[in-house]
């Protein structure tokens, strides 16, 4: 049984949420936070699917401290997800967080609990990620590593890190003026990519307060890192996010091949620093794909306007 609180974020994607929920049921968290945004009233099928997901509360047959937050009115995606995370951290010092399209292995929960305990007093560790899209890179055979490339398809963190978020996003202008990006990334392509990304994001984030961008970018000004496992422990089945229209898997949809229920950690890096080679390999094989970059920006804009 998982001791750490688990937050499950849902909306109307019952097909994805069903698989994710069944995986959570296997873990039997002792404290379970079940969140549901409300479907829009003028979308009858969405309302039906929304109510179906909420009915799954009746399936919680293990002994747990159950909390529910079922919104009575629809809110936009950004308000919805940040509000759900605010909710769990108002009540918990630490939590494991899963969106409705993230299917977690049992080892993921064990791994998160171990890492949350190990790094709770290390402020440079901003979050625990269950994702690894470059399993083939591990020259030293480490069971965990560190990166600034924070992946949020199955993750965990602490209240004090979450509460450091600068929702006004004022610091982003300092990024540009100070030359922060030039000194923070190790290759020219990375610098150009993130400068373009920040330029496109700025007005969008100021308007939406899109939580993942704000959380990660706030972490970077604290020189923060994420812990990630040597094996991918969570599969994103949502084809690159909410309302995605693509019909083939993205690098983020990597399957889980780790078969043990317990995540064994025997070989840990001797130095507390980022693995730059891993970061670069992830960047050039996963992030630095112009068509995917453009697609993700367009997709976020579509979600903003509910297209």
Account of the 3D structure:
There is one protein chain. By secondary structure, the protein is an alpha/beta fold. The chain contains 11 helices and 10 strands. The longest helix has 21 residues, at 188-208. The relative contact order is 0.16. Mean pLDDT is 86; it is low at 240-246 and 290-295.
Mean pLDDT: 86
Output the helix-strand order: EHEHEHEEHEEEHHHHHEEHH
Q: Tell me the total number of β-strands.
A: 10
Strand order of the largest sheet: 3-2-1-4-8-6-9-7
Strand content: 15-25%
Largest sheet: 8 strands, mixed
Q: What percentage of residues falls in helices of 4 or more residues? A: 40-55%
Radius of gyration: 19 Å
Residue runs with pLDDT of under 50 for 5 or more positions: 240-246, 290-295
Taking the alpha carbons of the first and last residues, their distance comes to 40 Å
What is the helix tally?
11
| Overall outline | globular
Helix/strand structural class: alpha/beta
Describe this protein with a few key phrases.
single chain; 307 residues; alpha/beta
SSE arrangement:
Layout lengths: L4 E6 L3 H14 L3 E6 L7 H12 L9 E6 L6 H15 L2 E6 L2 E3 L1 H14 L5 E5 L14 E4 L7 E4 H4 L8 H8 L1 H5 L3 H21 L2 H11 L3 E5 L4 E3 L39 H12 L2 H15 L3
Parallel strand pairs: 1-2, 1-4, 2-3, 6-9
Antiparallel strand pairs: 4-8, 5-10, 6-8, 7-9
Brief description of this entry?
43% of the residues lie in helices and 16% in strands. It contains 11 helices and 10 strands.
């Amino acid at each position: 049984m998982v001791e750490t609180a688990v937050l499950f974020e849902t909306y109307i994607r019952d097909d994805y949420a069903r698989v994710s929920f069944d995986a959570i049921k296997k873990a039997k968290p002792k404290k379970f936070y079940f969140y549901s945004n409300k479907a829009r009233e003028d979308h009858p099928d969405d309302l039906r699917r929304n109510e179906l997901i909420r009915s799954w509360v009746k399936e919680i047959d293990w002994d747990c401290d159950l909390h529910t937050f079922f919104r009575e009115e629809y809110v936009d995606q950004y308000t919805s997800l940040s509000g759900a995370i605010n909710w769990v951290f108002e009540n918990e010092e630490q939590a494991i967080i899963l969106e409705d399209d993230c299917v977690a292995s049992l080892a993921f929960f064990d791994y998160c609990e171990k890492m949350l305990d190990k790094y709770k007093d290390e402020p440079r560790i901003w979050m625990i990620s269950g994702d690894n899209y470059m399993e083939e890179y591990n020259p030293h055979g480490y069971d965990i590593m560190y990166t600034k490339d924070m992946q949020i398809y199955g993750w965990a963190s602490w209240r004090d890190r979450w509460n450091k978020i600068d929702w006004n996003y004022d610091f982003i202008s300092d990024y540009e003026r100070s030359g922060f990006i030039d000194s923070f990334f190790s290759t020219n392509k990375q610098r150009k990519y993130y400068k373009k990304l920040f330029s496109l994001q700025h007005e969008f984030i100021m308007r939406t307060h899109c939580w993942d961008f704000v959380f990660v970018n706030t972490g970077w000004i604290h020189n923060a890192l994420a812990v990630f496992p040597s094996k991918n422990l969570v599969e994103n089945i949502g084809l690159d996010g909410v309302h995605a229209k693509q019909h083939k898997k993205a690098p983020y949809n990597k399957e889980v091949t780790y078969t043990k229920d317990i995540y064994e950690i025997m070989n840990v890096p001797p130095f507390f620093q980022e693995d730059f080679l891993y970061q670069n390999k992830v960047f050039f094989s996963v992030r630095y794909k112009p068509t995917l970059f453009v697609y993700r920006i367009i997709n976020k804009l579509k979600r903003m306007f509910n297209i």
